[in-house]
Write a structure and sequence with these properties.
This protein has about 70 residues and is α/β, with parallel strands linked by helices. It contains one helix and four strands, in the order E-H-E-E-E. The protein is globular and about 30 Å long.
């Protein structure tokens, strides 16, 4: 079964390294990003949400995954 991951802060140093690893990992079919600015990554695996991190409750419907990285 393919997994979905959420990354909060994929534009930071740690988040950007994690994103690159998850993009290469065949176990993950979808990576949902919540950040203040775009990662500029182009992949069919990525679903990117540019948001105010203090208003995560507005995105609760999109906040479903197997793993969450913060």
């Amino acid at each position: 079964m393919k997994k979905t991951a959420i990354i909060l802060g994929a534009t930071g140093l740690t988040g950007s390294i994690l994103l690159k690893k998850l993009l290469k990992d065949p176990a993950f079919e979808k990576i949902i990003l919540f950040s203040r600015s775009s990662t500029e990554e182009n992949s069919p695996k990525i679903e990117e949400h540019l948001i105010d991190m203090f208003q995560l409750d507005k995105y609760s419907e999109a906040f479903t995954a197997d793993v969450v990285f913060c």
